[in-house]
Design goal:
The structure is a homodimer.
Chain A (H helix, E strand, L loop, with lengths): L3 H12 L6 H25 L5 H12 L5 E2 L1 H8 L3 H13 L3 E5 L7 E5 L1 H22 L4 H20 L3
Antiparallel strand pairs in A: 1-3, 2-3
Helix pairs in contact in A: 2-6, 3-6, 4-5
The structure holds a DNA duplex.
Pfam families (chains A, B): MarR_2
InterPro entries (chains A, B): HTH_MarR-typ, Tscrpt_reg_MarR-type_CS, WH-like_DNA-bd_sf, WH_DNA-bd_sf
Keywords (chains A, B): DNA-binding, Transcription, Transcription regulation
DNA sequence: CCCGTTTCTCTCGATGTCAAGAGACTCGAC
DNA sequence: GTCGAGTCTCTTGACATCGAGAGAAACGGG
C-alpha cells in the first residue's frame, strides 16, 4: 500500500534527480506518523475530558509512585517544557482539582505538586484508553514485526537519549 | 543500548503491573524520535536562516515544479495548517522576499503564491542540509535495516494517509 | 438572468508556549 | 555570622497557531 511519503519522495526524485532522498523514506514517515498519533491521542483523551498536555503531567506524577508528588522542576525535565509553561499547567490542573500544590517541607523556596485521588483515577483511565487505541493502530503488524520495529527505533533514539540532553 | 522509553515502560510495569503496555514500545518511540528530529531540523535550518515552517511552505512550492506556484488553499492541504496561519506565513515569507503573491488570472477570488529565485535557492540549500543531517542520524542502521524500517512504518502510516483525511 | 450556495482568502480574538528575568530562599566559603 | 553565588518558582511580554466568521467572487438550477 502506498502512503503520502511515497508520493513525497516521488516528487523530489522528479524535481531533484541529482539528490539522494532515501533518508526521507524513514524519517519523514516517523514525523508524519507522530502527527497522526498526536491527533488520535487528542481524540482518545477527549473521552476522559483531558488534553494531551494534562495527560503528560498527570502521568508523570502517576509514574512517580506514591505519594504521587514531584516538584515543578522535576516535572519540567520529564515533560520538556519551560518553567513558565509548567506554572500555567499546574495552575489549570489545580483549578480542575486534579493536582494540588503543597509547600515543600524541606525547602521553603520549593513547592510539591501532588496528584489528587480524582487526578490519579483520570490518569489511569486515560492510559487504559490510550493503550487500547494504540493496540488497534498496531494491529497492522504481527507481534514479531512490532518487536522488530521497536528494536530498530531504539537504535535511532538511544543516541539522543543518552549522549546529549 | 537503553533509551528513555525503556525507562518509561519499566516505570509503568512497576506502577501498573496489571496493564499490558507493549504498544508504548513502538509508539512512544515514534513520538519521542519525532520530537528529537524537530529539534535537529530546527538547528539544521537555522544555518540557512529558515524556520521549519518556512521550509515546509517553500518546499511545497518547490516540489510543485515550475513555475513553482500554488494557491493558498493548495498550500493548506499540503502543510496541514489552518487558513489563518497560512495567510500569516505567506505574509512573512513575502516580506522576506522568498515568495510573492500574484493575482490568479483564472479566478478573481484567488491568489497564487510563487517562489522567487531566492526562495528556490534557499529551499534547495536547506533540503541538501537536511538530507545530510538525516543521513548522519540513520548511519546507526545498515541499508537493509533502513529499508526494513521504512517498510514497517509504511504499514502503520498507510491507513492514516489513505482511508480518512 | 437572478438568487442561493459554495468556494476562496483574509481578519480577528483567544490561547498556549517560550524566553528572559524577578523575587525568594539555600548553601558554602570565609 | 555574613555575603555572594546558585537554585527554584513565578511573572511578563512577544509570538505563532487555531477557530470562527466576514467579504468577494464563482457556480448552477430555475
Amino acid at each position: 500500500m502506498e502512503d503520502e511519503v511515497d508520493r513525497l519522495v516521488a516528487a523530489w526524485r522528479r524535481e531533484r534527480p541529482d539528490l539522494d532522498v532515501e533518508p526521507l523514506e524513514v524519517l519523514s514517515r516517523v514525523s508524519r506518523l507522530a502527527r497522526h498519533l498526536d491527533r488520535a491521542r487528542r481524540l482518545a483523551f477527549a473521552e476522559h475530558q483531558l488534553e494531551p498536555w494534562e495527560f503528560d503531567v498527570l502521568t508523570a506524577l502517576r509514574r512517580a509512585g506514591t505519594p504521587y508528588q514531584l516538584s515543578p522542576g522535576q516535572l519540567l525535565t520529564q515533560t520538556l517544557v519551560t518553567s513558565g509553561t509548567m506554572t500555567n499547567r499546574i495552575d489549570r490542573l489545580a483549578k480542575k482539582g486534579l493536582v494540588e500544590r503543597l509547600p515543600d517541607p524541606s525547602d521553603r523556596r520549593g513547592v510539591l505538586v501532588r496528584l489528587t485521588d480524582v487526578g490519579r483515577d483520570r490518569a489511569d483511565q486515560a492510559l487504559a484508553g490510550l493503550l487500547e487505541q494504540e493496540r488497534a493502530i498496531l494491529a497492522e503488524l504481527s507481534r514479531a514485526q512490532r518487536a522488530e520495529l521497536a528494536g530498530l527505533l531504539r537504535q535511532l533514539t538511544a543516541p539522543f537519549d543518552n549522549i546529549p540532553g
